Amino acid sequence: MTQIVEVDRRLAIEEAAARVIADPENSKVAAGLLAEEIADETATHGVRTFSESVAATHAAGLLQDGLAAFVSAHSTELDALIDESADDRFEYFGLRTVYDRYLLRHPETRRVLERPQHFMLRVACGLSASVAEAAELYALMSTLSYLPSSPTLFNSGSRRPQLSSCFLLDSPRDELEGIYERYGQVARLSKYAGGIGISWTRVRSRGSLIKGTNGHSNGIVPWLRTLDSSVAAVNQGGRRKGAACVYLETWHADIEEFLELRDNTGEEARRAHNLNLANWVPDEFMRRVEADAMWSLFDPKRVPHLTDLYGEAFDTAYRAAEAEGLHTRQIPARTLYGRMMRTLAQTGNGWMTFKDAANRASNQTARPENVIHLSNLCTEILEVTSDGETAVCNLGSINLAAHLAGESMDWTRLRATVRTAVRFLDRTIDLGFYPTPEAEAANLRWRPIGLGVMGLADVFFSLRLPFDSPEALALSTRIAEEIALAAYDTSADLAVERGRHRSYGDTRAAAGVLHPDHYGLGSSPAWTALREKIDRTGLRNSLMVAIAPTATIASIAGCYECIEPQVSNVFKRETLSGEFLQVNRYLVTDLQRLGLWTQEMRDAVKRADGSIQDIAGIPSELKILYRTAWELPQKALIDLAAARTPYIDQSQSLNLFMATPTIGKLSSMYAYAWKQGLKTTYYLRSRPATRIAQTTVQALVPAEAEAVACSLENPEICEACQ
Amino acid sequence: MLLDPGMDLTLRPMRYPDFYERYRAAIRNTWTVEEVDLHSDLADLARMTPQERHLINRLVAFFATGDSIVANNLVLNLYQHVNAPEARLYLSRQLFEEAVHVQFYLTLLDTYLPDPDERVKAFAAVDNIPSIRDKAEFCFRWIDTLADLRSLETKQDRRAFLLNLICFAACIEGLFFYGAFAYVYWFRSRGLLSGLATGTNWVFRDESMHMEFAFSVVDTVRAEEPDLFDDKLGEQVTLMLEEAVAAELAFARDLCGDGMSGMNVDQMREYLEYVADQRLRRLSMPIRYGTANPFGFMELQDVQELANFFERRVSAYQVAVEGNVTFDETF
């Protein structure tokens, strides 16, 4: 009998989920049914209350003893904190994600042992020293106002609490032992759900002499193939696949082979399909592209010092090495730049990240020996690395959509959320389990955190601000500034309470220089007052703000990802749990109000691949507001990013979108991004050149399908004009 | 005219630039089997019920030979009679894609069926499994209709050619394959077999283009020789689709047995009828069934994907990008 109930409910969930486009409310219906199913599932293991769930997960060997003891000592207070109705805030996709991936399961039965609210309070308790602290963080999480990053959600309170999202490894030394030691580090870090960024710039290029054997090197590609296999072999507890991004500086003589690693044609022995690739680009290169000058490629073995220089020191050393004739060969800078653009268009990879912009404004690079050599897997983290120091970052993101109050942002609440978030991110540094000593050493020394945002597009839609409007730019910049001010202020308070971070004396902040100062924006009364405070207190954290992609946690929160525009008004999310329909509910609400959300309209939007621009009857202000990422000028995205850069002391995962990229458009766009002072960019998103014949919208007969046969070149077969 | 017999070699002035554009678009979507990670599927297969395993094994057995049959017809019939070099460019490209599909399904079989005897059996399914043999025979019968035609001289010849073209587009690529895709996406909607689904997405994209190319050949011929399209042709197409639906339905009975939650013979029948109507509509012919699509999960295939790159390979990129470095283009 119960089996029949379960099967019926599962079908009802699927049916509701499939009708999300017709009415987005079906998402809540499906979520409600799923919440019931989860409650029934936990009940089979006798779990109803929070304390019961912690007891059950602890008994199953999944939690730390300390956490179990804390919960058992305060079970009545903690059980009372659970807000059962908070489940109503989930969209179906968000709750499904929580259920499939985050709730702890019994090792044998594979049934979940905690409900969604138990999970959130368990994560909060895992980061708290008192019931009051746990209540504070749980209140933010259960209202979906702030979520820690996935590794923290996965592992808080567990026996191996690896809580950090990203690790940045310096390039291996140019020797066999160094390279194999790095593979080991990458594997250990990857195992516990960390994303890996690793530089390969120090390793000698193809043809370089190997003294020990009197042979010649095959260059970096064979090493990266091994890294590729190693990364693919590590499966993060079945929850995610391992992932890594390799950074290479633009002067490395193997740069062209590096750019071909992701091509889907050519010799398989020189491909690495699982690795992401990023260019670590010095300004000197971009200047030569502009001037249409030559560019010299070097074997790092001959110019090992270049890797640890940036800015004018790099420019001088680079030119001196050229003058000495140390380069392996030279090519026109524009040829290489065009090649980089082609890789972006063909693979989305080969991200453009700018070495000098990254180093110049960093709080960590006050001393010449402290240099940023790469960014991370998502290009939002910029931290110093060296052979013995692996940079680490703990992340969390504020859901901006949950901080709206009527027609504007609730600034007071936003600041309060930042304060809580910073305190807990700082706490994760001490609670985390570090898979390698290099990571632990660096994190305790610098104590960087990465507070980010999500749901910016929701804010713009709610306030009816087109992405490219001046009002959107002003609001987005103010959000970034408010977050930075509150974050720095909190870190200053923490420095008083718990002490400055160990390397504070090595930072620019110690000399009175804060991030906005590099952009001439640090002299307002708010920043002046903050600078004075920091002069007295110091800081607990060397870096504080980074805008991560929030791919998974935005799903949980039911908002648009980080600072991204929507890609389509109707789309599906593909994840390890399956595929899920998503619709722009702001658009649907508007069209429902106008009585326009009909089956014909839904088909028309799907047929137009989620665009509403050419659909008759939709008011033009809605068309302007609900443009997709493909329809917005990318210049506007870059301008938004550039305007917030002074308040982002690390960086931002900035995707750029171009439906049909050409080398000309891309080279203009990335040159503009560099000129605007962006530190990093992320994927170039493009669209498939062909698409499937849709099954669920009415087939169009030729006369209906515009532009099928209209061609002036062959008017005799063109029916449209006759 | 497009079906006039001969070996036209003249690309300029180009008579059918649309065919040439289709050729170029297809090249921009080149994918290779090496990009698909099928090993992640093995854990899913191990967890499946015997009924689901049976479905998958049969499905894979159909895939093993389906694309080879399509390729054969292309070489034996289509290429010969579609007389425009730009159209033949597209067909050459299509032939390459069919080869990639064959390679994909070969790799799939080798991965899914580690036992060599099982593999041999799967490839022999076209001879031994009645529900697969019947579909293959349907295809062979239509290949053979043009066997003795060296050139399309008469109206009768041309109608025979059109029926073959429509059969492969509407019934085989457009119905048999669409049926097979639905099973894959049914698994996918439950979070299963993502490797197979990834490859299928790409095959699906290619097949859609093949079908659309064939239909635009039909449109072109209709514009050039409208008298070929008489009522009789319409009746023959409808009859052919009915036959294809029946064959695919017999296959569904073999696959689904008594049915599973979310997938059974009745739903598959509705789906196939719905798809068949779509094909008729595209051919500007009256629909036959008037049935609605029962599979909500197919809607998922009609909208843009937003993959979490942590979890899935992103498939939305293009090859063959053009242009030169400049700094003054708008973006």
From TrEMBL, chain A:
Asked if Transmembrane helix is a keyword of the record, the answer is: no
Q: Say which domain of life the source belongs to.
A: Bacteria
| Keywords of the record | Deoxyribonucleotide synthesis, Oxidoreductase
Which GO molecular function annotations are given, in alphabetical order?
ATP binding; ribonucleoside-diphosphate reductase activity, thioredoxin disulfide as acceptor
Could you name the Gene Ontology cellular component terms for this entry? ribonucleoside-diphosphate reductase complex
Domain spans labelled Ribonucleotide reductase large subunit: 527-549
**According to the UniProt record, what class of enzyme is this?**
oxidoreductase
Q: Which GO terms describe its biological process?
A: deoxyribonucleotide biosynthetic process
According to its UniProt record, which reaction does this protein catalyse?
a 2'-deoxyribonucleoside 5'-diphosphate + [thioredoxin]-disulfide + H2O = a ribonucleoside 5'-diphosphate + [thioredoxin]-dithiol
State its role: Provides the precursors necessary for DNA synthesis. Catalyzes the biosynthesis of deoxyribonucleotides from the corresponding ribonucleotides.
Q: Which protein, by its recorded name, is this?
A: Ribonucleoside-diphosphate reductase
Q: Which organism is the protein's source?
A: Nonomuraea dietziae
From TrEMBL, chain B:
Q: Does the keyword Iron apply?
A: yes
**Co-factor requirement:** Fe cation
Q: Where does Fe cation 1 bind?
A: 67, 101
Instruction: Output the Gene Ontology terms for molecular function.
Output: metal ion binding; ribonucleoside-diphosphate reductase activity, thioredoxin disulfide as acceptor
Q: Which InterPro entries match?
A: Ferritin-like_SF, RNR-like, RNR_small, RNR_small_fam
Paste the cofactor note: Binds 2 iron ions per subunit.
Residues reported in the UniProt entry to bind Fe cation 2: 98, 173, 207, 210
Quote any Pfam family the record assigns: Ribonuc_red_sm
User: Sorted alphabetically, which keywords does the UniProt record give?
Assistant: Deoxyribonucleotide synthesis, Iron, Membrane, Metal-binding, Oxidoreductase, Transmembrane, Transmembrane helix
**Where are the catalytic residues?**
105
Q: Which SUPFAM superfamilies match?
A: Ferritin-like (SSF47240)
Where do transmembrane segments lie in this chain? Answer: 160-186
Enzyme Commission numbers on file: 1.17.4.1
Cite a single GO BP annotation: deoxyribonucleotide biosynthetic process
Determine if Transmembrane helix is one of this entry's keywords.
Answer: yes
Q: Reaction catalysed by this chain?
A: a 2'-deoxyribonucleoside 5'-diphosphate + [thioredoxin]-disulfide + H2O = a ribonucleoside 5'-diphosphate + [thioredoxin]-dithiol
Its EC top class is oxidoreductase
**Tell me, how does this one assemble?**
Tetramer of two alpha and two beta subunits.
What does the record give as the function of this protein?
Provides the precursors necessary for DNA synthesis. Catalyzes the biosynthesis of deoxyribonucleotides from the corresponding ribonucleotides.
* Family in the record: Belongs to the ribonucleoside diphosphate reductase small chain family.
Query: Per its record, how is this protein called by name?
Result: Ribonucleoside-diphosphate reductase subunit beta
